[in-house]
Every structure is written in C-alpha cells, then in structure tokens.
Write a structure and sequence with these properties.
Order of helices and strands: HHHHHHHHHHHHHHHHH
Number of domains: 2
Distance between the termini: 60 Å
C-alpha cells in the first residue's frame, strides 16, 4: 500500500500524491495568519474532514514539531504528508505548502525593493511597516502564557524563566547578531542546572546544536547562505524570532537593505500566506535578486525537511528526552524575550513622525482589541497610501 518503505505505518486509506499536491498547494494559498491558521487548516483537512489522521497523532505532531528549530507549522505540514505517503509525500507536501507564498513574496519584493518604486508603494510600505514593532510584541505576548505554564509552580524555575526572558530581550535589543549564542546558552544552562540536581538521570541523547560561524568577511552568496541557515536551523521557537536573527546581518553587517526596507520585508512576511520564515526570501532578493531569494528560501527550509524526514520515526523518543525538554525550558523563554526585544531595533527604524500614531494604533488593535495581524497591516498600508497621496514624506 505504500510507495516508500522508510515511511510510517500505512494510514487508514491510501492518499494519492496528486491529492497531497492539490490539498497542500491549496493550504499554501489560503494560509494567511501564521501558525495558528496553518494548524487549524491542517487539522480540519487531515483530522476532521478526511479522517486521514487520528486526533492524537495530529496533536503529537504539533508537540514534536514545536520542539524543533525552524517554522513549526511548516514542519507540521511536512509531518502530516509524511504520515500519509512517507518521504515522497513529505517532500511533495512541504514544497507545495511553501511555493505559493514564496512566489507571491518574491513578486512583492520586486515591487517594494525596486530602485524607484511608485510613491503609493512607498506609502503602503511605510504604513504597514509602522506596525511591525507592535507585531513583534504581540507575537511574544501570545507565546508567553504557554511558556510560563511549562515551568510549573516552583519558585526557582519561575525565577529562571524571568531571567531567560530578560536575557533574550536584552540580546535582541542590543546585540542581535549574537542572539543565537544567547538562546543556546540559556538552553544549555537549563540542561546543566537540571542535571546537577539529578546526576544519575540518563538522557536518550544529548541535544548539541551546531553554532554557525559568523561569515562577515565572506560576503556575497556565502554570507547569504550563512544567514539563511541560521534562520532555518537555529531559530528556536520559529516564526518571529527570525527577525532579530536577520536584521543585523541584512542591514548593518552586509548592507543588503536599509532599515526601512527590512521593516517592509517583515511586513511582507506577515501579509503573505505561508510561514513567516519566508521573510528570508525578501532579504535574499535584496542581496542577489530572484536567484538570491530562491537560494535563501531553499537553504532556510532545508533543515525543516531534514528534521522531519530523518527524525519523524523518533519524535516520540525526542519528546520524552529529558535533555531536549530541559534545553527548550531554557531556550523557549529566551525566544519569547527575543521576539519582544526585537521591537526596539525595529522601532528605531521608523523614519517619519507620522508613523508613530500608526504604531500606537497597531499596538491598540493587536494587544487590546485582539485584531488579526494581517488585517491590521493591510489597514495601516491603506492609511499609508492615503498619507503619501496628501504629501506625507515617504522616502
């Protein structure tokens, strides 16, 4: 029944590769709104409508992919396709899920990063870009409750949670290029502290993330590859944590884009379907045109495929691995802090006074009124177009 003997146990019914290609492409086209939307769409398709997967299997997939670096919802899409048709299905489903948003974001990058874009485009970018710092705070706020519940009710772990959040926020706000080091340090510190309290405990395997060397002297495509691999393989917590990882490299170190253009890139990553990690394609476009954008996307998403294809059969073991759990108990809060802290350098990139009221409005809409990110960004983009039309500075 199965075309790939290395895949999982056969599902209730054989799902054709054509069906996977069609359905995962559809999800990639309508997946506006980030990971919560992607998870809901995958659950509706695979569990509720088609009954391809048991609800318990799906929930286990969510838990396991949230332990991995990189875009968790993309990894979940790959995982679901893997459960249905093994490695071939996983590769096909992941590609189909990613491609629609990637094509759209590269097309928009060509417009927004043109040498002399129309005034209305600059206005839309300035309006939507004004909301990006508030989006960062909103993303962190949404992640914080689950991270806090994970530490339990004991005083010492809660104190460490606060310290890890503060470390991540401070690093993102001040030394963004070293954020990965801080995330790793928080995770490894928690592993060491827990082992010291239970020296006889044995883990199924140690989690030793690789630290990618800084390639500032290399420049060009080599530097772009380093940035993309950091985004794809070292972005613990996925999603918005890629912003502080990329900002310093793209704006300060390599000068591929201005701070304002980086805000535009983040906004484009939010308003297009698919994972936020596709923001790296805009950075790649700025560095090397369409080829650079495609290269950055391929490198950034490659770890997600590798993690699921190689680790899928071991997800249950990984979830029960004490070392893995300890690492993410330290790195997870640091990710929350890093996402919140990224609002500082992002806010400093706002270049016009008229953007400040829009930032305040975005904070109100996202944090108080609980509006969706896409709708807020689109609304502020329209306001930016109007502001440009009546003469507000946009260059």
């Amino acid at each position: 029944m199965r075309d790939d003997p290395t895949g999982p146990a056969s599902p209730v019914e054989l799902v054709s590769l054509r069906t996977i290609a069609r359905e995962w492409t559809r999800l990639g086209c309508i997946g506006f709104g980030g990971p919560p939307t992607h998870i809901a769409l995958l659950r509706r398709l695979c569990v509720e409508e088609r009954a391809w997967l048991d609800a318990e299997v799906f929930e286990d997939g969510i838990a396991a992919t949230n332990l991995l670096p990189g875009p968790a919802s993309t990894q979940l899409a790959i995982f679901c396709a893997w459960k249905l048709r093994g490695r071939v299905g996983a590769a096909l489903g992941g590609i189909c899920f990613i491609l629609p948003g990637l094509a759209l974001i590269l097309g928009l990058a060509a417009v927004f990063l043109a040498s002399r874009p129309p005034t209305w485009v600059l206005g839309a970018a300035a309006g939507a870009g004004a909301a990006v710092p508030a989006v960062a705070v909103s993303a962190a706020w949404a992640l914080a409750p689950a991270s806090w519940r994970r530490v339990g009710r004991t005083r010492a772990p809660r104190a460490r949670w606060v310290a890890y959040v503060a470390a991540g926020a401070l690093a993102a706000a001040t030394v963004g290029e070293y954020l990965v080091v801080v995330l790793l340090a928080c995770g490894l510190l928690e592993v060491a502290l827990r082992r010291s309290k239970d020296p006889n405990r044995r883990a199924a395997g140690a989690l030793v993330p690789a630290v990618v060397a800084h390639a500032a002297s290399a420049g060009g495509l080599a530097a772009l590859a380093i940035v993309a691999i950091k985004v794809g393989a070292l972005s613990y917590g996925g999603g918005f944590v890629i912003v502080p990882l990329m900002q310093h490299d793209a704006v300060v170190t390599y000068h591929w884009m201005t701070g304002t253009q980086f805000l535009n890139a983040v906004a484009l990553g939010q308003v297009t379907p698919g994972p936020v990690v596709q923001t790296v394609a805009v950075v790649g476009y700025a560095a090397g045109g369409v080829g650079g954008g495609l290269l950055a996307a391929v490198i950034a998403f490659a770890p997600s495929f590798a993690f699921v294809l190689a680790g899928g059969p071991r997800f249950d073991t990984m979830r029960g691995n004490a070392t893995v759990q300890s690492f993410f108990s330290g790195a997870g809060p640091a990710v929350v802090g890093a996402i919140a802290g990224s609002a500082v350098p992002l806010g400093l990139e706002l270049g016009h006074v008229w953007q400040l009221p829009l930032l305040a409005a975005a904070a109100l809409g996202l944090l108080v009124l609980r509006r969706g990110v896409v709708s807020v960004l689109l609304l502020l983009g329209v306001i930016g177009v109007v502001a440009a039309a009546i003469g507000a500075p946009v260059r």
